[in-house]
Automatic annotation (TrEMBL):
One Pfam family from the record: VanA_C
The keyword Hydrolase is assigned to this record: no
Residue ranges of every copy of the Vanillate O-demethylase oxygenase-like C-terminal catalytic domain listed in the record: 103-272
UniProt keyword terms in alphabetical order: Oxidoreductase
Matching InterPro entries: Cholesterol_7-desaturase (IPR050584), VanA_C_cat (IPR044043)
Keyword Phosphoprotein belongs to the record: no
Organism expressing this protein natively: Caballeronia hypogeia
Protein name (database record): Rieske (2Fe-2S) protein
GO molecular function: oxidoreductase activity
Length: 283
């Protein structure tokens, strides 16, 4: 299916569940359309404004977020089984409106090369600036981009880290506007912490980034976890809002990739091959 039609018919995040207060109606924008949602009792409903006519939307609560779709029969949402594990903490790091294409926000999330320069002394530090080779593949069975064997030396790779360590990463891109990071879990190295970037494309040059954490952590408070991740995202903001053009170019000649950009290159190719135009520059 063409990505643009798929984008309209698919599920999109519009809020962290913990932010939806009962008996209040919230308004926002999705794909250039005004939508609203509200919670009454255990049920959340959503609507969109179709040239003055209010039409119902499909709505579901999953992975700590409210998802809506313009379609009455959207496809199944991707699977993140870690959210069903009872000992995990699911915490929202907030929803941030950013003046850039959601595709730009996802690509920045996939970029390890900026760690030492943007997140100095947290996710990286000089002179350790090289990105070690890693593997990227396209999984056609679920239509996802997956990067494995990603490693980076980090002074403080997570809120639970007490010492510098080489962090292991796995990246999943499950939708053009959704990226999921699995990273080393310092309290239990046999498991992964899961950090989700769920992007709400407000329009082609504005987005809202909903960041959800699914962590194994019985030490930090929700506020401590939230503060750590908001610090990281705050450092990324200046990069995101100053990228020109705001939409994501899909041709290599526009922005030349380097060896560290293998994942970003695969992401752009996936979008280009899928025919996506929304939030992108194809030529």
């Amino acid at each position: 299916m063409n990505f643009d039609q798929q984008l309209f018919d698919d599920w999109h995040p519009v809020a962290a569940l913990e932010d939806i207060l009962p008996d209040r109606r919230f308004h926002t924008c999705l794909l250039g359309r005004v939508i609203s949602y509200s919670r009454k009792g255990a049920e959340v409903t959503a609507q969109w404004d179709d040239d003055g006519t209010e039409r119902p939307m499909s709505a579901k609560e999953q992975y700590g977020a409210l998802w809506v779709s313009f379609s009455s029969n959207p496809r199944d949402l991707f699977e993140v089984p870690e959210f069903a594990e009872p000992d995990r903490r699911v915490v929202s790091a907030g929803s941030t409106r950013v003046n850039t294409s959601g595709l730009r926000a996802v690509e920045n999330f996939l970029d390890m090369a900026h760690f030492p320069f943007v997140h100095t002394d947290i996710l990286g530090a000089e002179p350790h600036t090289d990105v070690a080779p890693y593997k990227v593949k396209y999984d056609e069975t679920v239509d996802e981009i997956i990067a494995t064997e990603c490693k980076f030396p980090q002074p403080r790779g997570s809120a639970t880290a007490t010492d510098a360590l080489d962090m292991d990463y796995i990246y999943r891109v499950t939708r053009p506007y959704v990226a999921i990071l699995y990273k080393t879990c310092p309290p239990d190295p046999s498991r992964w912490d899961v950090l989700c970037l769920f992007i709400q494309p407000v329009d082609e040059e504005w987005c809202i980034a909903h960041t959800l954490m699914c962590y194994v952590d019985d030490v930090n408070s929700d506020e401590q976890l939230r503060h750590f991740q908001q610090t990281i995202f705050g450092q990324d903001l200046m990069i995101l809002v100053n990228q020109v053009p705001r939409r994501l170019p899909l041709t290599a000649k526009t922005e030349n990739p380097v060896r560290a950009d293998v994942l970003a290159t695969a992401y752009r190719k996936w979008i280009r091959d899928g025919g996506l135009t929304y939030g992108a520059i194809r030529d």
